[in-house]
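User: Good morning. I'm curious how 2-acetamido-2-deoxy-beta-D-glucopyranose would be positioned relative to this chain. Could you predict the structure with it bound?
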Amino acid sequence: MSVRLFEGKEHALSYWKYRISPSEEIINKILVFLEKHRSRPFELVVDVGCGSGQGTVLLGPHFSKAVGTDVSPAQLEMARQHSSAENITYRECPAEELPFENATVDLVTSMSAFHWFDHPRFLKEADRILKPKGCLALLNYTINDMELSYGDCSNALSQICKEFADALMPYRNPYLGTTSMDHYKKAYNALEYLDKEWHETLQTRKTVSVSNYIGLVESFSPYQTILREDPEKARRLSQDTTERLLKAMGVTSPDTEIVLSVRYYCLLACKP
Ligand SMILES: C[S@@+](CC[C@H](N)C(=O)[O-])C[C@H]1O[C@@H](n2cnc3c(N)ncnc32)[C@H](O)[C@@H]1O
Ligand SMILES: *[C@@H]1O[C@H](CO)[C@@H](O)[C@H](O)[C@H]1NC(C)=O
Ligand SMILES: *[C@@H]1O[C@H](CO)[C@@H](O)[C@H](O)[C@H]1NC(C)=O
Ligand SMILES: *[C@@H]1O[C@H](CO)[C@@H](O)[C@H](O)[C@H]1NC(C)=O
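Assistant: Good morning! Here's the predicted structure, ligand included:
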């Protein structure tokens, strides 16, 4: 089964504005793994479920060509608008039917998207297009242990941040269960490639304003569900969280900047 979400224009716009991308360190980890198996120069990377292309543009410079793919025209439009490099292009297609010839791709990545795909069909498709010793990198981050820091009130902020995430839990798509990390772990265990690695503690830090942080959480699918079911409740949740954060920080402007840290997890595997 695959699940289709995130396709609306509004949602695509909020994605582009607020989503965080993996740190240089995470991108490096992927490249180091790839380099163990295939030698440079790397030809082609395909970033599946690329959304508005935040991850695709980070990979581009390391390959002759990067192609981001997604089912959402709105997301792809956003990606095209914000990327100028000639060797980064975007294609509209499902993850389960990738428009590439057999054995032509060095690296297949998917960032915060794999849990929406039909896993067996996607993995088969990735296997088909990967070159021998080509690699697969699937990553995501956890909503539940995001942390915020600001001066000496970081503990209080992280607690508020955790309560915000907890309030979304009941609205998670049942398809995901309580944590989509399980999806990735299961996929990791089931993967037939023997040469594989699992990484769990890759931090990404980003300086954002309080309202950016709220915007990021509002772009998550459980929040979007609350917004559809009970817009007033959604609005109140964001507003309460904002007020509590500002109060704990002792400031009044939601433009005040804080450091958001997010934990990524990542499955790396190499085709025989
Ligand atoms: C959470 S977003 C991730 C976007 C981006 N990779 C990032 O790191 O922020 C998930 C993306 O997967 C796409 N998607 C969902 N199901 C898909 C499928 N079956 N095939 C291709 N893309 C899909 C959605 O349209 C959406 O853009
Ligand atoms: C692809 O574009 C990036 C700049 O975005 C550049 O660093 C890289 O060298 C390019 N690769 C080729 C083969 O042109
Ligand atoms: C491509 O690979 C698939 C499965 O891996 C195979 O069934 C198909 O025959 C291959 N096509 C070509 C043109 O080699
Ligand atoms: C993985 O990312 C998606 C979208 O960013 C999110 O909805 C999902 O909850 C994440 N997984 C976990 C375990 O939080």
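Residues 112, 140, 142-143, 179-181, 220-221 surround 2-acetamido-2-deoxy-beta-D-glucopyranose (ligand 4) (CB under 6 Å). The radius of gyration is 19 Å.
Let me know if you'd like a different ligand tried.
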